[in-house]
Each structure stands twice: as structure tokens, then as C-alpha cells.
Design goal:
With 123 residues, this protein is α+β, with helices and mostly antiparallel strands. Helix content is 28%, strand content 31%. A hairpin with a 6-residue loop joins β3 and β4. The longest helix has 18 residues.
């Protein structure tokens, strides 16, 4: 079965709305995770730390440049993910539609290619 990554993307506004109701959001998210576990589709799920605590490694110059925090012009940031093992893209989309997300958030659905799909280096 193919794997799909549900990438949680939020804005400053949707993240603030989520934090305003964090206890309710956490309870709803735990219930959603339990549903995916019972259905046998959840492989992994993680949330990400505040983007201000991260760094960006930029490879646009001759040498990599490390900068604290996210890009200033970023309007949406990845907040976490669910990795699912489902039968189809449509099934992944159906799970994505059920993610407990704050208004203004988005869930990006991306297929994870299998190892047999990655180009091999000829020896």
C-alpha cells in the first residue's frame, strides 16, 4: 500500500486560534490519532516546535548560510505531519478532511515514493 504524508500548514492567525483552544485541540487530535490507529493506517505523527526556535540552512550561495528562525516572508509554516499507509490518494484525502485543524489551516497530501521508485546510481 502506498504511504501518504499529511502535512499540517498553518498561518500566524490559525496557529493563534489553535493555541487559544489548545486543550480542546489536543483532546480532539488524540481522538483522531486513536481513530487512525484503530483503522490501521497511522505509521507516524509528530508536531513541530515553534518556527522561531529553528534555523534555516540556505544553499543559494557558494557556501551554506545558517540563519535563526524561519524565512521572514513565509506565510504558511509546516506545523507537523501524519504519515499514513493507505490504499489510495483518495483514502489519504478522506483522512486529511478529518484532521482537527483551526480555521485558516491547510493540510497538504503528498505521496511518499517507495524505495523502488527512487532512481538508483549505476555502479
Amino acid at each position: 500500500m502506498p504511504k501518504y504524508l499529511l502535512i499540517m500548514r498553518g498561518t500566524d492567525e490559525s496557529n493563534a486560534a489553535m493555541m487559544a483552544n489548545i486543550d480542546e485541540m489536543m483532546a480532539t487530535t488524540r481522538q483522531f490519532i486513536e481513530e487512525m490507529v484503530k483503522a490501521g493506517v497511522l505509521l507516524a505523527a509528530e508536531g513541530l516546535d515553534d518556527p522561531g526556535r529553528g534555523v534555516v540552512v540556505d544553499f543559494s550561495g557558494e557556501a551554506p548560510v545558517v540563519t535563526d528562525g524561519p524565512y521572514g516572508e513565509t506565510k504558511e509554516l509546516f506545523g507537523g505531519f501524519f504519515l499514513l499507509d493507505v490504499a489510495s490518494r483518495q483514502e489519504a484525502v478522506e483522512w486529511a478532511k478529518r484532521v482537527p485543524a483551526a480555521p485558516g489551516s491547510k493540510i497538504e497530501v503528498r505521496r511518499v515514493p517507495g524505495s523502488h521508485e527512487v532512481p538508483q546510481v549505476a555502479e
